[in-house]
Specification:
Two copies of one chain form a homodimer.
Chain A (H helix, E strand, L loop, with lengths): L1 H19 L4 E6 L4 E9 L4 E14 L2 H5 L13 E13 L6 E11 L8 E10 L5 H16 L6 H11 L1 E2 L4 E2 L3 E8 L4 H26 L6 H20 L2 H8 L4 H4 L6 E3 L11 H10 L6
Antiparallel strand pairs in A: 1-2, 2-3, 3-4, 4-5, 5-6, 6-9, 7-8
Chain lengths: 297, 297
């Protein structure tokens, strides 16, 4: 798994560097309690306002609090607090408000020595967060992920799609963070090899799910008002990540590398008091879909 | 208490309106489960990027989760989930990066019928969050609050100052949100009248603690780089409020009015990957104090 996420990080970063026409900054870091990672961040490029692609391979002993926010291994309770976790996590925030933000994450988790039932599992997913709705993009993104799921018996697209809608939900706003995609956790219902194959296939399909959308939207015209709306949507992104995201909570409570964890936050964001888009506007059209998630495929 | 916070809201808003040369927007709102409030927000004025002064008077039945995040009435446990809460809460974010953000909050809480020991208490405080350090401002702000505490037997400035430093601490950054001030909770060690007098004195002293600082700094010259630093500090403000602030958590889990709760967030904020100010710079001087809170008076 660790080999795979490093390899996929290389593939994805090479492609993004071509687009962005800029070198990424790389930081190789170590975690005092065990393990470390490799963060790569794009900024001031042609296409991305901020984009990060992180690998981490960490191990050690969980606090009971961190064990709770891990989102897996429910069967273990307070036993086996020793853990090993590795994953690839990326968040890309394009400059152009017509081009959607995307997030993806592929991870493997082990507690104790990984031999007890329920002591290892895979998780992951990918989801799309536009400021403006282009239905063809939503369909394309979901279709690629459905195709991946359909190739693996351990995967269940309708379930993972629903899980994504449920997970990336900003409860206090009554709206989804974005248009969803797939989300899965506690994947261990087949052999480790079969589970791994599915997660690897997801990771290798990321570029084909997102790059065509980026190419179509990254040079579209936009107004300053549309840029403001993007900034407001980025504020919602911040709200979700800091209030609800388990990965963020987990990182903040396990002495993770803060700059790598919060790399997911946008470069800039905006909170206008009582902002409400005009009825019938493009902005209000997006909100409708965020309040009523759709089946895109 | 409800009368007092409405009255002080009027006094403060009148003064801010003079400064900002703009009318505030007022929203009177009701909470489905009981009570409501009056929010006043300044935007697009001369001085403030965003400033809100809120009153809320809410009551109903707490969820056990909300009861836990209330930060008081520890003696009650899961009993007496009926509650009554009223308070004034304000956050002022000036445009000029030399002028500090300020927050203040004065509140009263009751559980059950308020007759059991520990079933009512006052809380509150005020704290200053500059992007640039002016020692004279830090001293003035703390001195005013020390003077208020010294006038009331129920108050203990050194304790409340320390409480403020401990509370407004961004654990994952290892730094304070700002320069502190006072923070207190569970105040019920004297009669209700004595406790109320102290909290009212705090509320009535707010303007004298902040306005002289604002007057001195709001028209100082600044560079675009200094504005960027202010935006980065605002990012930290967002991190504290969404990750740690109990008032925010309480509001988000009790179906509070979201726009009033999140009014505390700045208009705009910024997250640069691995931003680190130059050694010896003004920015680094501020960080030093945030990492090592000082006694200002």
């Amino acid at each position: 798994m660790a080999d795979m996420v490093y390899r996929v990080q290389d593939i994805i970063c090479q492609k993004l560097a071509e687009f962005d026409d800029v070198e990424y900054r790389e930081d190789i870091w170590e975690r005092e309690e065990g393990g470390g990672g490799r963060s790569r961040v794009f900024s001031d490029g042609k296409v991305f306002e901020k984009a990060g692609v992180n690998v981490s391979v960490v191990y050690g002993t969980l606090s009971p609090q961190a064990a709770k926010s891990m989102g897996g291994g429910h069967v273990l309770g307070d036993e086996d607090l020793d853990f090993y976790a590795t994953g690839l996590s990326l968040v890309l925030h394009p400059k152009n408000p017509m081009a959607p933000t995307v997030h993806a994450n592929y991870r493997y988790f082990e507690r104790g020595d990984g031999t007890k039932p329920g002591s290892w599992w895979f998780g992951g997913g990918a989801d799309l967060t536009p400021s403006y709705l282009f239905e063809e993009d939503a369909i394309h993104f979901h279709q690629v992920h459905k195709d991946v799921c359909d190739r693996h018996e351990v995967a269940d697209f309708p379930k993972f799609k629903q899980w994504c809608d449920d997970y990336f939900y900003i409860k206090h706003r009554g709206e989804s963070r974005g248009l969803g995609g797939i989300f899965f956790d506690n994947i261990n219902q087949a052999s480790q090899d079969e589970c791994f194959d599915f997660v690897e296939d997801c990771a290798l399909s990321f570029l084909s799910s997102y790059i065509p959308i980026l190419e179509r939207t990254m040079n579209l015209d936009y107004t300053p008002e549309q840029k403001d709306w993007q900034q407001i949507r980025r504020g919602r992104y911040v709200e979700f990540n800091l209030v609800y995201d388990r990965g963020t909570t987990f990182g903040l409570t396990t002495n993770g590398r803060i700059e790598s964890i919060l790399m997911s936050l946008p470069l800039t964001s905006r909170w206008e008091y009582c902002h409400s888009p005009q009825e019938g506007s493009l902005e209000s059209e997006l909100l409708q879909v965020l309040k009523n998630p759709k089946d895109w495929v």
